[in-house]
Amino acid sequence: MLKNYLKIAFRNIRKNKLFSFLNIAGLSIGMAVCILILLFVNYERDFDSIHTKNIYRLNEVQNWEGMVAPQNVALSMYPMGPTLLEEFPEIENYTRITGNGEMRFLHEKKHVVLASSLSADSTFFELFDFKMVSGDPASALKEPNSLVLTTSSAGKIFGDEPALGKVLALANQDSSFFTVTGVVENIPDNSHLQFEGLVSLYTYAGPEAMNNWGGNWLTTYLELRKETDIPAMEAKFPAYLLSHMGEEGAGGYELFLQPLSDVHAGSTDITHDYINFQKFDGAYTQIFFYIALIVLFIAGINFVNLSSAKSVSRAMEIGVRKASGASKSQLYLQFIGESIVISLMAMVLAAIFVALALPFLNQFSQRQLEFPLFSDPLFFGAMLLGAVMVGGLSGLYPAIYLSSFKPVKVLKGSPVTGKRKADFRNVLVVVQFSCAIFLIISTLFASRQVRFMQEKDLGFTHEQIITIPFGQRYTERYETLKQALLRSSQVEEVSASGQRLGNNLHQTSITFHGAGPAVNLATSQVVVDPDFLDVYEIELIAGRNFNDSEADNGNTYLINESLAIELIQKDGEGKDIESLVGSQFGFSGMDSAGRLVGVVKDFNFNSLHHKIETLTIFNQRNWGFGELSVKIRGENVSEALAQIESIWNTQIPEREFEYQFLDDHFNELYRADRTVNSIVGMLTVLSILISCLGLFGLVSFTMEQRVKEIGIRKVLGASVATVVTILSKDFIKLVLVAILIAIPISWYVVDRWIEDFAYRIAIEWWVFAASGLVAILIALATVSSQAFRAALMNPVKSLKSE
Q1: Residue 586: helix, strand or coil by DSSP?
Q2: 213 to each of 79, 219, 592, 599, how far by Cα in Å?
């Protein structure tokens, strides 16, 4: 019997080539999209899953007076780990980590660069399950200047030689030597901790740092007992802070715990999150998952619609089978089986699509997704089961409908179509296009929001500026390097700063002496050289800029408008911004000699996900700078870069020249938003394509059913345009209903989404109108293509057909 069912199934597929193609193509696209998105979702949700212990990250809420809003930060203080372990029985262990950036070693007279490195406590391997290939994980990081390498970095430095016990010297620092005390397996791509080298925390942090309450420089991870009541534990943190920092010190801090599983995808509201590889918004992952289901749902609707529409052509077959004694269950089995066969064929095609599309998705998303079709039996079984379920569910309604035909009526030639069946198909078309229109609207708004953030005036220029990593060790050579760069014909201006605009700037406390009592506030801060405002074309609205005099160096400050307004409010009424200039001002503990010399117009020094914070700009060249900012002439970028590199290699030969255009840095800030926009856009196109395939098939079937009607109308004088209008209007009505359903749903979803942006676009009516018009035009083009073909048929031929 099964063999007979399969024969009938393949016979019907061959007999109805167009409908079979549309069914298989629609299902395969829907399945491929679903598989690709599920691979992405699984990759994201699998972040840090290799670690088996109950690990939480300790985060702070910083809410000092003067801040626009409280900030959640992924930072903590050196003494917190040991004291928490001592005072909280819920804690079993802790480890502290801080980022070192790149490290450059000299090995056999060659420079070797480790692109990323971390410093960590000796307990690092007790908490995290990174597998050590050689060395003792318990002692590998106990001593200062201990270094643990990954297998790839060890191979890069030593080749096939054993790395354990080897000594490496830091480039240009003859007195700094590191002993390789361990080698670990390469870090998985879906780990939020990424490093090529791991250094003992005690290498750079001495006793003074270890007892520094108030210095937030690192990240602390805690291993908690399985039964720990997290809210109850967090409720004890205020008393803990008070006992160690006093009322004044603890006043601006709160502590909260974050599960390790949430660090990668649940940290969008956490700033200063420097150790979080490929940080991504978990809400977007959920959105992708839902959209994948929507696309698969649209493909399933196609199948139901086309199968039920085509059922009239199988009425005689069903009548004969029922008259011959076939039961309803046998008919169910046959038609659901046929659906499963089509679904399995679609799954094979979908697997091919996935294999072809995956490299592009990996390049686009910067992930390393894998398609373990044959390497993972569970995955293969899940795909097979999924295809069977999709086929079974999609074929359920056609099977019920087809098996309900009355053999007496069918064999007498009575029609089997009816209003209820047509109404059901119409409902499916409306649902299908509602989903597609919802995605069109969402894509347009997402695209406009991303474009708005990329094009908004930030209050400073970021064009033709390249940033070059620098470092405190080169402080004495900064002025010489700067003057050499300024002599280049391709360089306009040069400046330097402690941090890059577009990053989370560090916070500090400041003291302002005005007419009233001293005002103490917290602000973001950046250390710069005197030409910073000129390079970035930041507008000065009161006072003056820095100058090159020694009197200015280390004694003068600029603030932004937001901080100026805050100081006026705190100092008393009746003042204006100009009156602040000349006031005694400085970082707390340094305020006796400093002066406020100017106020700059507010500018977005962070991404547009955040509102402008209060800001202090400090002129202190002796502290050193984190990077250079070089504004180049735009006529010949390649020549400019070549000249800058040549000057760099002359002045600082021991360090490789690196650079990044500031434009590219700001584009990186919105990479996740652009990724979401692009993926939703591609899924929207595919959902429209699938919807059009279904509509095309449905229209084709309708034309077949109305071929005689069309012939009669043409004989009676109806024009081609009249016939096309008559055939198209019913389908366009369905699309209009779908628009009315999709608009309020999409408005609600988009409104909730843009709430997460500090600077956002307005929800304008024309976007909904444009989306509806696009849907109508797409549907009209799909319907008209078949309607014109039917309208151009020879009426004599159509009226002769039986």
Answers
A1: strand
A2: 7, 14, 24, 32
The answer to whether 206 touches 216, Cβ cutoff 8 Å, is no
| Contact criterion met (CB below 8 Å) for 306 and 396 | no
Rounded to whole angstroms, the Cα distance separating 577 from 600 reads 10
H helices of 251-376, where?
260-263, 282-310, 315-323, 328-365
* Residues in CB range of 94: below 8 A, 6 or more apart: 81, 82, 84, 85, 121, 123, 127, 220, 221, 222, 223
pTM: 0.78
Residue 496's identity, in one-letter code, is: A
**Whole-angstrom Cα distance, residue 605 to residue 459?**
9
C-alpha closest to that of 217 among 100, 98, 72, 63: 98
Give the tokens for residue 684: 């929207």
| Neighbouring residues of 239: CB distance < 8 A, sequence distance ≥ 6 | none
List, for residues 136-177, the tens digit of each pLDDT value. Answer: 999 999 999 999 999 999 999 998 899 999 999 887 655 578
Instruction: Indicate the residue type of 771.
Output: S
**Do 136 and 143 form a contact (C-beta atoms < 8 A)?**
no
Return the structure tokens found at 54.
């109950």
Angstrom distance (rounded) from CA 415 to CA 405? 10
Asked if 305 and 339 touch (Cβ cutoff 8 Å), the reply is no
Which residues, in sequence order, are bridge partners of residue 253?
A: 62
Lookup: tokens for 763: 């929800």
In terms of Cα–Cα distance, which of 37, 44, 27 is closest to 682?
37
802 falls in which pLDDT band (50, 70, 90)?
very low
What is the sign of the dihedral through the CA atoms of 39, 42, 46 and 50? negative
Tokens at residue 784, please? 């008209």
How far is it, in rounded angstroms, from Cα 516 to Cα 153? Answer: 59
CA nearest to 220, candidates 340, 355, 76, 421: 76
- DSSP secondary structure of 437-492: HHHHHHHHHHHHHHHHHHHS--SS--TTEEEEE--GGGGGGHHHHHHHHHTSTTEE
Question: CA-based angle 673:675:681, to the nearest 5?
Answer: 105
